[in-house]
Predict the 3D structure of the following.
Amino acid sequence: MESGPQRIGSSYLKSLYREYTDASFGTLKPRADADQRLSMLGPVIRGVVEDTIKVVFRNNPDRPASVHTHGVFYKKSSEGAPYDDGTDPSDQADDAVPPGGTYTYSYGVPERAGPMDGSSVMWMYHSHTSEVTDDYAGLVGPMVITKVGAARPDGTPRDVDREFFLQFKVSDEKQSPHLACNIANFTGDPASVDPEDPEFGESNLMHSINGYVFGNQPIDSLTMKKGERVRWYVMGMGTEVDLHTPHWHGNTVTALGMRTDVVSLLPASMMEADMVPDDAGTWLFHCHVNDHITAGMLTRYRVLPR
Ligand SMILES: [Cu+2]
């Protein structure tokens, strides 16, 4: 985690999805206290079954990027992924929005995009122009679809008091498009860095939850009250080392129709886990994979007395 002559340290330049106040993209929308919990993730896109969701995407980074969603209904012109699908150029503007470009994606929300059980389901969205490097750049966020009749006016599920969003990922910063910039800006002696040095490679595997390691996500952003109805949306991303088993100390959840305190995530897994905490305190929440524990894939959550 420490920076050094050949070490980047604990801070990296990332490319992140951020919400603006309007489509002029002049003013970043400040994140509400409740949204600070998102940390590195993009804004929560919300919809209710039978809605149409439109996302106006401005690409500020210096390379092409896109928005590719899971779960919802899209035509080829809103898939956000370039591959040999036989479409003509009029259906390809979504695949790779150029630097400075703007594109409006449109998604239907049929019943099959909504929850099967419960009131809401989380899908992820991410850039799919250069799938691997876009992921390691940080271009990922959550989308929540709520059942008809189950949403408040702002789209949040009425039967849930608090939602949390956490992504478990071994972020390989060596595969980030910002590697050269991070070496130049954060190492002590950039010219002496050998990117092929295995130890340099290991130092850039960030075993992170929402971009934080070793419990550094502010605990205020993971705080709830005893007796509240809490919905945890957890997701995985990454590669073959990304098998994660998020484990809550102190309280249990229901997930996939069973009671547990550990769930399983593989790359691009998405899951809801509902908790009604009955045990106040500050509790560990960590990946239970041994190698990931020692590498810092852990955080804390806090349950206040009612
Ligand atoms: Cu893990």
About this structure: The helical segments are 131-137, 179-186, 198-203, 290-294. The longest strand covers residues 162-172. Residues 168, 244, 287, 289, 292, 297 surround copper (II) ion (CB under 6 Å). DSSP finds four helices and 16 strands in the chain.
